[in-house]
User: Fold this.
Amino acid sequence: MQRRHLLKLLPLCAAATPWMAWANDEAPDALVKRVSTDVLNTFKADPSLANDMGRIMGIVDSKLMPHVNFNRMTASAVGRHWRQATPEQQAQLQEGFKALLVRTYSGALTEVKNLTVVFKPLRAQATDTEVVVRSEVRGRGEPIQLDYRLEKTPQGWKIYDLNVLGVWLVETYRGQFAQEITAKGIDGLITTLRNRSAGRPG
Assistant:
């Protein structure tokens, strides 16, 4: 499976996963399973969704994206250039990056079939504030590594990075964004994100 398909895998995490005692909070691995299962079951319950990208994007945006820390993810992806951006540019970068990911997830939901996800035991302590939830996507061919980095926030656990086939999402985008900023500046990257999230060429 090519790395560009990593975003299609997150909504499929419907395998059993263990609980840990995280005070009164939902365990991070349980959160990933619950949210992704909810998205997947919603999609399976209404086959007509496959032909309605607008509705799919709405489901992904409302059910999955609230559990992603877009501020941290965007800042990490933009890298050292983030501090050079004005507050307005930072807000536009975050908005554009989120829209791009929502569109990517939504498109992936129309394609993924007959895959199962198996979670590995969570190696973490109840006092940890950052964890990695590890899983494997199983279907045809070799299992695909799919991991999630989460951080504990006052609003609960939030995903801030994903890993597929040994490559972290933020690291991949950081290289692309750096090239774009070098060539066109921060405003150029904002324009590119807007175009790509709208399905137009960068």
Observations:
- Residues 3-197 form a domain with the Nuclear Transport Factor 2; Chain: A, fold (CATH 3.10.450.710).
- Confidence is low (pLDDT under 50) at residues 1-24.
- The longest strand covers residues 144-153.
- The CA atoms of residues 87 and 93 lie 10 Å apart.
